[in-house]
Amino acid sequence: MAEVDSAMEIDVEENQQPRKLINKGKAVAMGSSRESKATPWVEKYRPQSLEDVAAHRDIIDTIDRLTNENRLPHLLLYGPPGTGKTSTILAVARKLYGAQYHNMILELNASDDRGIDVVRQQIQDFASTQSFSFSGKSSVKLVLLDEADAMTKDAQFALRRVIEKYTKNTRFALICNHVNKIIPALQSRCTRFRFAPLDPVHVSQRLKHVIEAEGLDVTESGLSAVVRLSNGDMRKALNILQSTHMASQQITEEEVYLCTGNPLPKDIEQISYWLLNESFAESYEKISEMKTRKGLAIVDIVKEVTMFVFKIKMPSDVRIQLINDLADIEYRLSFGCNDKLQLGGVISAFTQARSVLVGAAK
Prior knowledge:
Layout: E1 2-3, E2 23-24, H1 41-44, H2 57-68, E3 75-78, H3 85-97, H4 101-104, E4 105-109, H5 116-128, E5 141-146, H6 153-165, E6 170-176, H7 184-187, E7 191-194, H8 200-214, E8 217-218, H9 220-230, H10 234-247, E9 250-251, H11 253-260, H12 265-277, H13 280-294, H14 298-309, H15 316-334, H16 339-361
Parallel strand pairs: 2-4, 3-6, 3-7, 4-5, 5-6, 8-9
Antiparallel strand pairs: 1-7
Helix pairs in contact: 2-3, 5-6, 8-9, 9-10, 9-11, 10-11, 12-14, 13-16, 14-15, 15-16
């Protein structure tokens, strides 16, 4: 749900001069680029208005109302990747400025421009220059800072002072994945909105629109596989769909998993069967053979097996211990630990869980 603080009135300045956009953030597919076959679908089908945004209608409606009432506050949009944060604020900018869109916003990616010099130079220079909108809609300018959680602490404190100084004619929109990396002083000056992972229904609806527009041959199981692998990330879903289409004329479940390198559900069922029924040596040999033959990554196997554990009937304490063991292995893999050792750890975790189950049955 949206966390709405008190909104700030937007003050309209007279005799303001426009300033060109310094665009160092995410590119926006507009005009003829929409028709280019080379355009990535994540840009080609990026929502152009607030009505086009796939989900989070409570957040969208709140921001839309504030925009209509000329009361747009500083914004802090946070949540996992691919949930519509950047698309939302870009749609707001188009609604506010119309044809003057490129003159009225400064778009920066804070993961590249993360130091205090950027705040003191580019952002302060842009915010301190007065401007006006030829459309007569709004003269307030917009600074968009994508991946703001990558900014240094010094840069964030400097940004706090810039926000305070230029609130009258500039609004700031901060976008990040981890809100805890934004200093409290900045958070308190913004209206915060959390973008949760998209519901599978919304991802599926948007993908069906793309499938129809591109004339793709996609089976129901193929569409379900794309939705499942995206985990609520629309950007990831579109990338999977496009890459699979480039590799195969028909997009089926098997083609989707083959293209992404993820293990098929039937492979995970087979691996889980070996883990629960075979000896350590046999499990290790069979899983290693499948991993090599199908080019699977051990970290993907661990993730999928962890999800499969929830489907297995077992006492809750055994399930919790097994999931914790698998989470520890996944954590070690993220630091580049040896795959063979971690596969042995997976088999050992299941062997221990199996021993507990057998002991309880006796």
